TrEMBL record:
Region (Disordered), start-end ranges: 1-23
Organism lineage string: Eukaryota, Metazoa, Chordata, Craniata, Vertebrata
Domain UDENN: 39-430
A Pfam family this chain is assigned to: DENN
Organism per entry: Mohoua ochrocephala
Protein name: DEN2D protein
Keyword match Transcription: no
Gene3D superfamilies: 3.30.450.200, 3.40.50.11500
UniProt GO MF annotations: guanyl-nucleotide exchange factor activity
Length: 434
């Protein structure tokens, strides 16, 4: 069932299917090198309504789509209706201003078929005299690569200070360039009046599953101990609410928490920044991972909510918990992960963000490998080539009591079931056997 926007539902996030040929490789968004960088660039501005309040509206869209089939046209309209809401999720209480620090954040929309689109946003104040409202430049893409799109938005912002007209040729150039493979670079030629032709290099990180992630954002705000409580709750697919005032903090931290689950994918409601009008999402009885602005805290706490973990990212503390978070993960593995996270924390100034990403991810992937890495040996292959997972034997094979207790719960989650479903489909010869 889809919630929110009639089919383009940000609330109900079903994970996309893994393409064949990639056993167990899941990431929140799939893409292949060579496809378009983006689908649209839209500008969302605040427009005054007859009753005096302001509403976000799309004031510019590139490219304009002609000749769409009926179904595509409906989907496009749904998408374009949903975007303004997520570009200004903080409601309509805006006043014109002369000062505004530009901010970068992202949101995720899910289509009826479960495919995801990401909106990369830069909210900025247009240059010019007098008081103005901020506007949002939003790039809609199927590709998950936050660092790369932040760089593109830097270029858009630089051009916006000159004039809107200079943005168009740059985006056209980008649209005509193929998306690079991991580790590769694409060079975009770009002309700016007064400063001539520039070459802009856009490089994708080597490790594709980490390119939408900034683990440092999490480590800077939460102690390793709390990060493990959050991770434990996420592995059992509970309800998670994150609070912060800044949209960029919310979207960075939630993407980071979802990425801790790799190679599994969060398979439920996932809204990095919940628009004000969707705040009742927190009443859902099903699992969710959502970000809410701190100003709505009172409203959220008043809602009739099932058990949830509520995390304050500003103060770095947990406001509400179920109470058993400390006991969920097997103690020995939990301590190993704590040591690992503390080590990165102590060297925070030494590592680049890529190094932090790799080190943190490694600790969590290692946790899953230790607990469920033996899954492939428990898929029984039939003559027809289809596999069936032997769950009981798989759990029995775990000798440690505390590990077995955790795994028995973990195998019942959606993320594990989806992972195994893909594994049962993709019988691929091991490397070296052809």
């Amino acid at each position: 069932a889809s919630e929110g926007n009639d089919g383009v539902s940000a609330a109900e996030n079903t994970p996309p299917r893994v393409p064949q040929g990639m056993p167990g490789e899941r990431s929140s968004v799939f893409y292949s090198a060579g496809q378009f960088f983006f689908e649209y660039l839209v500008v969302v501005s605040l427009k005054k309504m007859p009753d005096g309040h302001y509403e976000p509206k799309i004031t510019y869209q590139f490219p304009k789509r002609e000749n769409l089939l009926k179904g595509q046209k409906e989907e496009e309209e749904r998408l374009l209706q949903a975007i303004p809401l997520f570009c200004f999720p903080d409601g309509n209480n805006w006043a014109p201003t002369t000062e505004f620090t530009s901010e970068t954040f992202s949101f995720v929309l899910t289509n009826v078929d479960g495919s995801r689109k990401i909106g990369y946003c830069r909210r900025l104040l247009p240059s010019g005299r007098g008081v103005q409202f901020p506007e949002v430049f939003c790039i809609i893409s199927c590709l998950g690569c936050f660092g790369l799109f932040s760089k593109i938005l830097d270029e858009v912002e630089k051009r916006r200070q000159i004039s809107m007209a200079v943005i168009y040729p740059f985006m056209q150039g980008l649209r005509e360039s193929p998306f690079p493979a991991p580790g590769k670079t694409v060079t975009i030629k770009s002309f700016i009046p007064e400063s001539g032709t520039e070459l802009i290099e856009l490089t994708r990180p080597v490790d594709a599953h980490l390119e939408h992630v900034e683990f440092q954002a999490l480590l800077q705000r939460l102690s390793p101990h709390l990060i493990l409580h959050i991770f434990a709750s996420a592995t059992l697919e509970r309800r998670l609410i994150f609070l912060a005032e800044e949209l960029s903090v919310l979207s960075q931290c939630i993407h980071a928490v979802a990425a801790l689950l790799y190679p599994f994918t969060w398979a439920h409601t996932y809204i990095p920044v919940v628009p004000e009008c969707l705040l009742d999402t927190v009443c859902c009885p099903t699992p969710f991972m959502v970000g809410i602005q701190m100003r709505h805290l009172e409203r959220v706490l008043e809602q009739p909510m099932e058990e949830a973990l509520i995390v304050d990212l500003c103060e770095g503390k947990i406001i509400r918990a179920v109470g058993d978070e400390e006991e969920i993960l097997p103690r020995k593995l939990q301590n190993e992960m704590l040591i690992s996270l503390n080590r990165h924390n102590n060297n925070n100034n030494v590592h680049t963000s890529e190094q932090v990403n790799a080190l943190v991810s490694e600790a969590f992937v290692h946790f899953f490998v230790r607990l469920v890495g033996h899954y492939a040996s428990y898929i029984k292959w039939g003559r027809s080539g289809s596999g069936s997972f032997q769950e009981r034997a798989f759990c029995k094979a775990i000798t440690s009591k505390s590990c077995r207790r955790f795994v028995k719960k973990f195998v019942k989650t959606n993320m594990f079931s989806l992972f195994i479903e893909e594994a049962e489909k993709s019988r691929i010869p091991q490397e070296g056997n052809g």
